[in-house]
Amino acid sequence: MPINADYRGPGDLPEVIPVFPLPGALLLPRGQMPLNIFEPRYLAMIDDALRDGHRLIGMIQPDASHSGGDSKPKLFEVGCVGRITQFAETGDGRYLLELTGVSRFKVVEELTVKTPYRQCRVDFFAFVDDFEARKGEDDVDRDALLEALRGFLKANHLKVDWDGIENAPNEALVNALAMMSPYGSAEKQALLEAPDLKTRAEILVAVTEMELAKKRTSGDPPLQ
């Protein structure tokens, strides 16, 4: 596997990947996710991913509605695989990583394995459009997205680099805002499973507007 991998389609990815169940974590294609790894089972997962050369980790949320208190909670059916594109050792037993999203996947089955971390057989073919950068950008209502962002920032007394936002392509803007959004697991999963960029932007706007309306009418504390 080359150091700089170029994934042109689902066939370029393995059928079996290690998965990292993490509530509230949303990785999207070409998005960047920092991770602080300290649990022994996930340190082993990173060691194996680096040793095997594929450097791929499947990010997926545990489905709390079906956990039943199990030590091995049920997973949502859809996650996103990312490639380790930055790696550092901290000297105190932790790894600091950055994953770059490659493609979403559907879980076909979870495998019975001897590794301390979970592994799944997955299918990428349902998300073939993920391999085409900036697909569907022209369909995004950018004005509505920015208006929702302004409302969110004002309600929470936050500031952003507007020059950077204005210069960001629609795909990067939608996916970055979705990944950074403060919403719960259900909302994050809806954003992940959106069939296209336009729908993801619409979900993000709708959820933001609902939360802002709730805050205005009920006096709820700011989103966090």
Structure in words:
The protein is an alpha+beta fold. The protein has 2 domains: 10-131, Archaeosine Trna-guanine Transglycosylase, Chain: A, domain 4; 137-218, no CATH class. 33% of the residues lie in helices and 23% in strands. It contains 6 helices and 6 strands, in the order E-E-H-E-E-E-E-H-H-H-H-H. Strands 1-3-4-5-6 form a 5-stranded mixed β-barrel. The protein is globular. The relative contact order is 0.16. The model has no long low-confidence stretch (mean pLDDT 93). This is Lon N-terminal domain-containing protein. It comes from Rhodopseudomonas faecalis. Residues 17-212 form the Lon N-terminal domain. It holds the Pfam family LON_substr_bdg.
The count of DSSP E runs of length 2 or more, i.e. the number of strands, is 6
Percent helix range: 25-40%
Largest sheet: 5 strands, mixed, barrel
**What's the arrangement of strands in the largest beta sheet?**
1-3-4-5-6
Report, as a whole number of angstroms, the end-to-end distance.
40 Å
Supply the number of helical segments.
Answer: 6
The helix/strand order is EEHEEEEHHHHH
Structural class, by secondary structure, is alpha+beta
Percentage of residues in strands: 15-25%
**Radius of gyration computed on alpha carbons:** 18 Å
* CATH-derived topology of the largest domain: Archaeosine Trna-guanine Transglycosylase, Chain: A, domain 4
**How many domains make up the coordinates?**
2
Task: Please write the CATH class name of the largest domain.
Answer: Mainly Beta
What's the CATH superfamily of the largest domain, by name? LON domain-like
Q: Which architecture of the largest domain would the CATH scheme give at its second level?
A: Roll
Which stretches of 5+ consecutive residues score pLDDT under 50?
none
Organism: Rhodopseudomonas faecalis
Pfam families: LON_substr_bdg
Protein name: Lon N-terminal domain-containing protein
Domain Lon N-terminal: 17-212
